[in-house]
Task: inverse folding
């Protein structure tokens, strides 16, 4: 295994200084091999996930507008018992991840 230290000349030391100037003819074999540039390719699943996220965002905007109108008109009446159960259930499942809370 070869380890290529690109900072050898910048860090003084008895071994590093002698290596950097000891054998100037050995240059190319001491250099790391050239590699292909990094790249990224997304799958069809990633595209579908992106579209789903965008449509979910549009649905969320619509739902928020509906809730805002209901609150402003005074017709928004959330089920406080269902909300309380959901809060406790979430807290229990977060505190004890392998437990399913049933309240």
Result:
């Amino acid at each position: 295994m070869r380890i290529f230290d690109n900072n050898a000349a910048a860090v003084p030391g008895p071994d590093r200084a002698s290596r950097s100037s000891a054998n100037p003819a050995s240059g190319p074999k001491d250099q790391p091999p050239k590699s292909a540039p990094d790249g990224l390719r997304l799958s069809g699943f990633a595209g579908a996930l992106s579209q789903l996220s965008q449509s979910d965002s549009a649905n969320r905007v619509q739902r928020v507008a509906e809730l805002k109108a209901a609150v402003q008109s005074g017709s928004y009446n959330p089920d406080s018992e269902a909300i309380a159960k959901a809060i406790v259930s979430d807290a229990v499942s977060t505190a004890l991840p392998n437990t399913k809370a049933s309240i």
Remarks:
- The radius of gyration is 31 Å.
- The chain has four helices and no strands.
